[in-house]
Amino acid sequence: MTPIVLAVTECLCLAIAAPAVVGYVRWLKARLQGRRGADFLQPYRDLRKTFAKGMIIADTTSWIFHLTPCVVVASTVAAAALVPVISASQPGDQLGDLFALMALLILGTIFLALGGLDPGTAFGGMGSSREMTVAALTEPTLAIAILSLALTAGSTSLGTITNTLLTTPANAIGPGHALALAAFLIAMLAETGRLPVDNPATHLELTMIHEAMILEYSGPYLALLEWAAALKLTLLLTLASNLFVPWGIATSLSAGALALGLAAVLAKLALLATLLAVLETRVAKLRLFRVPELLAVSFTLALLAATSSFFTR
Amino acid sequence: MDALFSRLTMTGASAMLLLALVVMWRRHVPAYVTAFRTQSVVLAFVGAIVAWMGEVPELFLVAAIILGLKGWIVPRILAGMEARRPDDRGLRPLVNTEMSLLISGGLAVAAYELSRPLTEVVSLPTRSGLPIALALILVSLFIVVSRRQVIAQIVGFLMLENGVALLALLGAYGVPLVVELGVFLDVLLGVLVMQALVPGMEKTSAG
Amino acid sequence: MDSVLVIALLAPPMFAAAVAILVRRAPVGAVWFDAVTMPVSACAAAAIALRLAAGGAPVVVGNAWRLDALSALLALLVSVVATLAAWLGPGLERRGGVPSTEIRQYRIYANLFASTMLMAVSTSNLGVMWVAIEATTVTSALLIPLRRTKPAFDASWKYLLIGSVGIALAFAGTVLAFVDYATTGGDLELALNWTTLRTAAPSLHPEVAQLAFVFLLVGFGTKAGLAPTHTWLPDAHSEAPAQLSAVMSGVLLAVALYAVARWKAIIDLAIGPAFTDTLLLVVGIATVIVGSASLLSQTYYKRMLAYSSIEHMGLACVGLALGPLGVFAALLHLTGHALAKSAAFLISGRVYARYRSGEIEAVSGLLETAPATGVLFATTVFALAGLPPFSLFLSEILIVQAAWRAGHPAVTGLVLVLILLAFASLVTHLQRMLFGEAGRDVPRGERPSVPLGLLALPVALLAWIGVTLPAPLRMLLTYAAEVVRP
What we know:
The complex is a heterotrimer.
Chain A: H1 3-32, H2 42-52, H3 63-82, H4 98-117, H5 122-153, H6 158-167, H7 175-191, H8 210-213, H9 219-244, H10 255-282, H11 291-311
Chain B: H1 2-25, H2 29-53, H3 58-83, H4 97-114, H5 116-121, H6 130-146, H7 150-172, H8 177-201
Chain C: H1 2-22, H2 28-53, E1 59-61, E2 65-67, H3 69-87, H4 100-122, H5 126-143, H6 150-183, H7 194-200, H8 206-224, H9 232-239, H10 242-271, H11 273-295, H12 301-320, H13 323-355, H14 366-369, H15 371-385, H16 391-405, H17 409-434, H18 450-467, H19 471-484
Antiparallel strand pairs in C: 1-2
Helix pairs in contact in C: 1-2, 1-4, 2-3, 2-19, 3-4, 3-10, 3-13, 3-19, 4-5, 4-10, 5-6, 5-10, 6-8, 6-9, 8-10, 8-11, 9-10, 9-12, 10-11, 10-12, 10-13, 11-12, 11-17, 12-13, 12-16, 12-17, 13-15, 13-16, 13-18, 13-19, 15-17, 15-18, 16-17, 16-18
């Protein structure tokens, strides 16, 4: 399989699998809460339904309102193209590295916030300001957590980081690795708007962050934004599993290795999604002014991980 | 084997530092006592590892005393003190949580830089944990300075002692036994005297 | 012979404490035992000091105890001041008034306190020295709230916490030096012996030695009342009972500086004196500024004396940084300060007993109501202010001279200004207390008594030393200075 085909396939895999991941998490939460829950294909049906609906767009919006869903989807898909999914000989490395990934993610976040501000409603503004507060701490944390791995690997390209950990597994024992993983997971919860930072199922004004920003969107725009959010969750989960626990990923382009890689990443995604569902069932949402404290903890953990990696090169 | 020794002690040291960060993060005093107790247990564990892999048998005794004294007796004394001072729970620290955590991160980076000459000089396999021990010392000092609750200040002091003990373990496989025993005695007496002083501080009238 | 001397030095306070613990009722017996055994310790210290002043070899007992000239000087100061405090302590007054529980508590902890200080200066192992100094914090912290008032408890708590944290940092410095020594492959059993470290010092690594000294200075400096960790001192020394304040201000601070000096002697051999001198100079000047500047605004006379202690410790610290002459001057300064400050606090106890108030405003007409006490108080405060003929004048002049010779004109000028400022503040407060009209409910008249006579002794000693620096003391100070700065 040529690199280009592989890259496109990986990206498509993520894009297609994203709603399923969200559906699985929702189903598992329902089960844990004693409900029957819709099956994990329900988000696909929801997306199809939403795409078919008409749009109502407020008069007070500008071109930013229309641009936002496109930019968010584009940046998230581009970020997904950079993530090593099935193969560690990552074709996406030629497109961008760690910093490009972070830049794309923040691009999406910024436009989402702008899109929330654009209609001029109270909910949107509130959601955008909260989102920026959270993003100010999560983006550096994600970057520094991956940077601590990059320092050990000697390169910021994601494929190289994965390969280095595969070839020298001893790097994984020790505090730097565990700290970086913990920091990454906490920041990921905040970035993707999951409990305990934000409740993805709520529409109460006191508790919304992500939902508040997309409140004004309807029809295909809404479908695009929801799908982009699901894709962001999936790509971050994949990143966590393949950067920190890469075993199983394909190191060659043979069919057997690729199949194994696919199975491995699906298994890891399933495991992480299960853990996410269990966590969301167990914890309550944090009060908003306690969120920066949690994020400061994750930032400090990331900083410690990067420091220990830097000084023990 | 050396690599495993190094990694294990470094992991233990990092766990101790993280437990000190718990004091920065949580607001309520019982969490501090639990963090200290866990940190002392981890310290005893690190001591046992150094005793075994570094082949210094007397450290087993030291680890046992750490476990008994700092892992059991002192936390019980602290828990007793905490139960008698419920109004401390409302006291806010001098520096808020986010700044405390960021300053702790900064102190950890500073500790790494300060201990560079030390790690170059020491040739033992445990030397990679030395910066973490120094970071623990600095972070504990910051805890004492920035917290207003009495128990939090005591916990900060005790964590400082833990940090110095860790420094001794990792840097030279422990100090001579006489000094070690003297240190334990001093810590125990110090905590007992603190316990004796705290009720007197609560009097609302002089005399 | 050596072991006899060491036992005679260290055992008496421990015996006195043991007797005080065992005798529960009628502690008068314990008090008299204390009053009789403490001079034994002082005599032993004097004997050791005389021997070393004559150029004799250090008193050594095995690997545990070693008293060279520096140790002997400090041991002498500690035992003399402790004896004075024992003679003037609660339980020996003609009129009763002090509850026997307080008497017993005082005798137990004051003696334990004295024995830990003596152990700290007589041990040859720097780790044991650390343990002893930490023990001084614990024993004295229990004694500060003797009168069980809330401010006393608060002061004691602050003292215990800040002192313990400081001591823990000093332990970190000790461990760093130990680790450095361990990397040179020396014998680990004797690693913390001062003589071993001294011999091995040239092979210690410079940056580690620097880091260790910073921790040691901050740590022991906290116990010595050096800035910026001096904040516990005014509270602790003013809330403590007068006899305890006398011992704490007079000698405990000096013992902490002794610890700094011991380590300086080692570190200087490793990296040359420039680093430690600079640090000590900066810290010392900052301390003197804090002490002198705070004196004028004081409204309680015991706090005034406490800030004066801070100022004098700063001066001694500056002296340590100024070469051999400076170290000599610093040690002379510590000697004079021990005598003057302990006498001042003990006399302030008499003033408090008469006026029932700690405020300077409330005390006036001291010369009228209690002439002998007033005169003694005036002379000790003059001594502390650095007036001739007392020895503190001599040591301050020597420090200034050492600063000039070491090539620090700015330091010289600054120190002179600060000494003058302290002098002005102290004399202003003193004048307010001595003259004026005393309140109507203040008892007047004073009979000559043994305590007054005893309090005249340190004053006389200060004058004698200041006028003619007696040869034995001069030789002892010279040899002691050589230990720190050869």
